[in-house]
Amino acid sequence: MEEDLDRIANGEEERVAWLTKFFYGTENNPD
To answer: Which domain holds residue 21?
Structure first.
């Protein structure tokens, strides 16, 4: 998770998309 947050901070990962997956899961893997 820390690596994911580092990628967000570096602009390599989209924060809204990542947070959406984190909170709501994905279609194939709902949380």
So the answer is: 1-31
pTM above 0.90?
no
Give me the torsion for CA of 4, 10, 13, 20, rounded to 10°: 70
pLDDT tens-place string over residues 6-24: 999 999 999 999 999 999 9
Per the structure, how many domains does the chain have? 1
Closest CA to 18 of 8, 28, 10: 8
Q: Tell me the H-state helices in the chain.
A: 2-9, 15-24
